[in-house]
Design goal:
This protein is α/β, with parallel strands linked by helices. About 30% of the residues lie in helices and about 25% in strands. The protein is built from seven helices and nine strands, in the order E-H-E-E-H-E-E-H-E-H-E-E-E-H-H-H. The radius of gyration is 17 Å and the shape is globular.
Amino acid sequence: MHSFFKYILITLTATTLLMLAPAADSLSDGQLSLKASDDDFRIARIQYRGGGDWYNDPSSLPNLVRFARQHLPISVSERFDDIPIGSRDLHRYPFAFMTGHGNLTVNQSEANNIREYVDNGGFLYIDDDYGFDPYVRDFIALAFPDDELVELPFNHPIYNQVFEFPEGLPKIHEHEGKPPQGFGIFRNGRLAVFYTYESNLADGWAYDVHNTPEDIRLKALRMGVNLLVYAFTSER
């Protein structure tokens, strides 16, 4: 793992977390370790070519982080940085987010940069905001030609890091009415890329834009917290 991922390991019992996060549905048994530092980490939002709206719903990430900070001792900034998909600057960020509705154009160098990013310890979360799916799959095939995009079982740890989702991803936006699915790419035994299809968590995070009902908003935010905690605590 590169030196820019400098974490101080904070280990808290589930009881302590319960005191800090009274709105939690439930907490995992035993201990939950959160990696933090004196300076808040920032999330990278990935900027790509092709005409897809990588920039949509800019309030989604700040809203998610604000919710996470209200419930957990997690040092993530509400500010995020827009980073081009082929930039080496991406490797400074432990968590990268990519979304959109349409076209995504990526060359081999950019695809290689993403593969190197996750192999160096980064975590990539991709959210289909409708119409993104065929482009995401082509991108993943280019970036990870030797890996299979697999659907995660509902008992995967990402669904129960802090908040329990025994039936997998929540359905946030109807889109085509299909059941939500969570897919992953595993590198060196670690879930390094997580892709949500027919769920659209980020729409739920941007509740101030989409007028999301309270119960749906909470599901989206709670699942988002699971993503952050998983990304910051998974072995690299």
